[in-house]
Queue: 2 jobs
Job 1
Amino acid sequence: MKEKVISVHNLVKKFGSFTANDNLNFEVFRSEIFGFLGANGAGKTTTIRILSGLSKPTSGEVTVAGFDAYRQTEQIKKNIGYMCQKFSLYEDLTVKENITLYGGIYGMSKSLIKERTHELLEKLHFQEYENRLISDLPLGLRQKLAFSVAILHEPRIVFLDEPTGGVDPITRRQFWEMIYETAARGITVFVTTHYMDEAEYCDRISIMSEGKIVALDTPENLKKQYNAATVEEVFIKIARPILSPTTPEILPRISPGNFNPPTPHLGG
Amino acid sequence: MQKIIESSGITKNFGTTKALNDISFSVNESEVFGFIGPDGAGKTTLFRIITTLLLPDKGEIKVLGLDCTTDYKALRKNIGYMPGRFSLYQDLTVEENLNFYATVFGTTVKENYDLIADIYSHIEPFKKRAAGKLSGGMKQKLALSCALIHKPKLLVLDEPTTGVDAVSRMEFWDMLGKLRQHNITIIVSTPYMDEAMRCDKVALIQNGKILAIETPQKIRDGFSRKLFTVKSVEKYRLINTLRKYPGTLTAYPFGDSVHVTFINDSADKTLYDYLNKEGISDVVVHEAKAGIEDRFLELMEGKIK
């Protein structure tokens, strides 16, 4: 029996009269690479904020790493890692300082931080960059480091929000090999991307449209079901463009934080 | 045919960073010319030079027959520029932004409406809404409308589709296709290799250097090896096993398969035997036509070696 690490039943999230997440149901398992796809404005960010303990559901049952998304948000935060394209590391701190900072925030002991820093730098062949500012690193290296930092505390789940946007094609592939390795170690990888070829690398994918999950299966099964050669074709068939004038395309902006990445103290 | 852009030897440094290193290219009238490359390749710097917002350290560049460094005033009237970051006034409405841009360029929305009708009609129902409250796809359409409202001869689009979903990206390229009927030359940058196929000509750019300039078809034809796609259910194990196989030259994951080149340019029995021995028995191998991204990877590898 596969171990569930995320379980979502009838999740609804409303902002005023707008339903951003409309009765979502899904489960994600240990060691799984789960691709969370959807058009812009489909409601993905809202879901990720709930799954990472930053926002509470309006209704429905949600547990993450065994913790309740209404009452145990702090425990959730301790058991997940998070990285996104827009904000990942402090640019005016060095590589080592960033690692130490995140280790400290997650309550790791000094000796453990030291040990993991060493391992991490060695694995990424990053020793020469140890004392370099993040702002001096090329994007590709930064993103690899950000990912490593997001899993420094060995979380149960790591959320990657468009981790490879703008990254060169070689680094993008190296990044996915890191994802495979991480999943093989037992960490669940929950990933969003606009590169549809990357969706093919996932164990299962869900496609969201207008607040609902309209498809959820392995890439192979979805392609069969929709008679498509690629996930991109599936996506184009069902992730309807939300651009018709009659559709409210506006994401709610309850708080200014709504479009921003989760607060830095979350990690990675 | 008139050259819309002619540049030779453009170099630009920021401190010790070589942002652009000896860039030469030319763009013909009514062409859709794509600059394809990752973040940090130098695309934005180049576009800022083309739009007269930045001076090159070295090299010459003429746009619409005018010199970018001396004739910038005349030139700016004929360029429409959509920067990578959303640059409109967030607290003005959709309609106010469009009127503002028209006025700045001494024209009216009415005068050039036919040019933007296709694009603007999607957001017109929301014309009273503040630009800052639009979603990504709509902001993109508004920005494009504003860049077009003075009927420029050259449209410069810096990563218009970055962070945009696959459906909206496709739509955006359809809109660009329609603009060609209006005799507008378009240069566009993107990190998405698949979008290269929508351009007449593309320049692959990396670390401030142009790796290749060709039609997309010719770039694909430039791939120097026979390319094979290899599929198995166990993707990660397949990649690692293929890399260990002595006959493998390169192995990169591409969607649901691995793109592989072999030293002897063939997928022979030795390969099947090897994979079988390693416990991968379900492989399906096909010879395939290289895509833009395959060629980009090949060119990048050449740089590394």
Job 2
Amino acid sequence: MAAPEIDIKYVAHLARLHLTPDEEKKLGAQLGHILGYIEKLKELDVAGVEPTAHAVPMVNVTRADEVQPWLPHDEALRNAPAKANGLFIVPKIVE
Amino acid sequence: MLNQLTISELAAKLAKREVSAREAVQSCLDQIQRVDGKIHAFISHDAADALAQADAADKLLIQAGSGASRSLLGIPVAVKDVLAVKNQPLNCGSKILGKFISPYDATVVEKLKAAGAIIFGRLNMDEFAMGSSTENSAFGITRNPWDAERIPGGSSGGSAAAVAADECLAALGSDTGGSIRQPAALCGCVGLKPTYGRVSRYGLVAFASSLDQIGTFTKDVRDAATLLRVIAGHDARDSTSVPQPVPDYSAALTGDIKELKLGLPKEYLIGGLDVEVKAALDAAVKQFEKLGAEIVEISLPHTDYAVATYYIIATAEASANLARFDGIRYGARVDGKDPVELYSRTRGAGFGPEVKRRIILGTYVLSSGYYDAYYLRAQKVRTLIRNDFLKAFEKVDAIVTPTSPTAAFKIGEKSDDPLQMYLSDIFTISCNLAGICGISIPCGFTKSPKLPIGLQLLGKPFGEETLLKIVHAYEMNTAWHKQKPAM
């Protein structure tokens, strides 16, 4: 069964993933091949079958709403690529 | 040489003060020095830190009785580069994490340290655990200790190679579709993937959250039982960990498997199965019969759909999990004029080809208009695959299969054909989809070249005791696990 054509540029935009023109070409061909293989799932009748999200489902796992010890501020920022005054620096979002 | 010992052998020597933890760590460091230039199991290791931990362990060992409750006091254990170890680097085999240093310990690391283990080294892996050969690491490939021209398996190839090459006594890895069992098989060690929810994943970098599980690489089954007892158990910091008591797995190793029923799934005896792997499986099955187990033919009718199901679910979950690597809070960053350009450039520069392939595939199968056709359908097929296993386990105590259809393949052999690479996981993937436990143990060698062959046993959810009992009985009556690669 033929797989649908993937619009690689659009999917890469959704994934926030910059691809070079070479990567787009190579990935397009490979993904077509993989999706062609995946099409085999359409052979199965899944009417009335419940989906499995987790093999061992755990429902509504919560903890008491209490303050827990956590990383000190400077530890949490330790790996930041850009920081100042105890904050992450990001590009301008609003003009 | 101390680095060649099992955990139980070294623990006995340490307890009697015949040797020191420092000597044990030093022998591992010497072995790394001797062979890792060729094998490259380790991305890095902090020798000074390992020796400092050893000295601390030796102090406790000298104080009579103070170490008695610590089952791993002075035992050197190395970890895959996907687990957080406080103040050590964490890269997941990727460029995108830059110079990341873990601010905290993963729960499994915390537990191992509390049991007295010496945690050292960052073991190589396929980037973000995506791969079956450890050829996808940004830090170079790892080679198989049995044949340096061949891959060690993956994604935990560094863990398997390090244990097989005696560079550590045991190692931790993670298994999303076979990433512990397949490399263990190809390198000739014991690889255990516990039941989903058995071991806390707090501090494990997520790949596919409904499939990932942490497990062990050891030189024998007893060591797997020892390590599992330490790392298993409920953890409030992982909402998917299951509040079920942790048994003494070692107590299950009685050697008696009379009247246990082992299922042989007919769907696993497929065309692509190598003749020597098939012969090793047949011999192992005979061995089990000799030990008093009953062999029953079973059917897992949806086996043929497992790889396709897996590559939808795993990539979909990965595309969501890996969204966190955006260059804002940690890791490398490539600047852009706005946040979207920054994310896109950072990720384009930071991720390798296999990770990009899976993010694109995962994003696609989740995208508007395709969700029902791919992701939802795959989740339904997953139910059918899981039901196959639950039905089989009504009749048998465990299932016997090969771990991998072939022994280790050559470096580069499958790297240009992702689908062929994916199909090499055909026997290990269903276990993760079903959420059950599985183990790979050595069961023979190919003739020329001499390469290890792995036997996989799959057990019921939370059936690790029975699983370990069965493979331990096999191991006591065979010597495959004692063979060492000539390096």
